[in-house]
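User: Structure please.
Assistant: Input sequence and predicted structure:
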Amino acid sequence: MANIKSAQKRIKVTEAKTLKNRMIKSALKTAIKKFETSVNANNAEEAKNTFAGAVKALDMAVSKGVIHKNMAARKKSRLAAKLNAMA
């Protein structure tokens, strides 16, 4: 355990940020998984709705600095390709 006051604060701040980032990443993975299951079930209408949710989650993760913008762009492109392959 740190003895210096600033180091103790950094530990607390890091734990809080880690928790927040983990929540955002978990929500992102859940949104992508919902889209994947709707695509696998060949449910086109539900896939469109869950695609919008997944894209929104990806954009939010980028804006919060949890993932890189190029990673989000790549994931959106791959999800869109899966959606277009259904139609």
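The two ends are 57 Å apart (CA to CA).
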